[in-house]
Design brief:
Elements (H helix, E strand, L loop, with lengths): L3 H12 L27 E6 L4 H5 L1 H10 L2 E8 L12 H19 L3 E7 L8 H14 L3 E5 L5 E2 L3 E2 L2 H17 L7 H5 L9 E5 L6 E4 L4 H9 L2 H4 L5 H13 L12 E8 L2
Parallel strand pairs: 1-2, 1-4, 2-3, 4-7
Antiparallel strand pairs: 5-6, 7-9, 8-9
Helix pairs in contact: 3-8, 4-8, 5-6
Bound molecules: zinc ion.
The site of zinc ion has 5 residues, from loops.
Amino acid sequence: MTDPSDQRDQFDAADQPVQPEHTETDTRERESPTITASYAGKRVLLIQAHPDDAEFVCAGTIARWAKEGADVHYLSLTSGDKGSSDPAADPVKLAATREAEQRQAAEILGVRSVAFLGYSDAMVVADLTLRRELVRVIRRLKPDVLLCMDPTVRYVGQGYINHPDHVATGEAALAAVFPSARDRMTFPELLAEGLEPHKVAEVFLFGAQNPDVWVDISASLETKLAALKAHTSQMGDWDPTEMIHTWSRETAERHPDKPADFGEFAESFKYFKLD
Ligand SMILES: [Zn+2]
């Protein structure tokens, strides 16, 4: 019979703050910063704040994995109902438009489902109510892989303040993965709903300023662009092609150990393997 105190010790060890030897530069768990593994047959959940977030930052990876046979699902916390500077814009109509645009983008990418939690745009807070909502989704869907925004990015350089919804969404998603979705005794009301604990095996943070893995998206870049252009209410007359090409090329150039056969365009992530 297992001594319950042994289990407790295991949990305590897992929950300790990161030790000095496990720094961001610790690469013992990985052989290469290039993600080449196939995600065929894996269930992938992407959590974003607004329709179009994923298309800008990581849709090349989504398109690649979906084409390989991954089972990809999107969850958008808001429907982007503040995403207009038109004085005549109606937030309810705008939300419906943006949900439709997101569904079309997802179809282009090969994403199987898109869900919206109905949070108000620009009002997302990483509180326990949101964390429980995300734990509920994770325990229902049981993803192998989760993508969310890097919650540590509050600003970049002197010209970019990150949207607070992006920070809050990343924080809530990461806190839902670890430890709440995993832990039986957290949110017992979810157990009462029949939702058993679930461990997510891999996490990719998009928009990371200190990425440690790179995905070659050269073969899926055009699909990414087509999906981004589906967000017509946000694109207006602007063609994002040049900007996305430049971003993706610069990302590939920052790969610290690029294999000879690595393509021209990449997306990068902060990566965690949690088993
Ligand atoms: Zn956004």
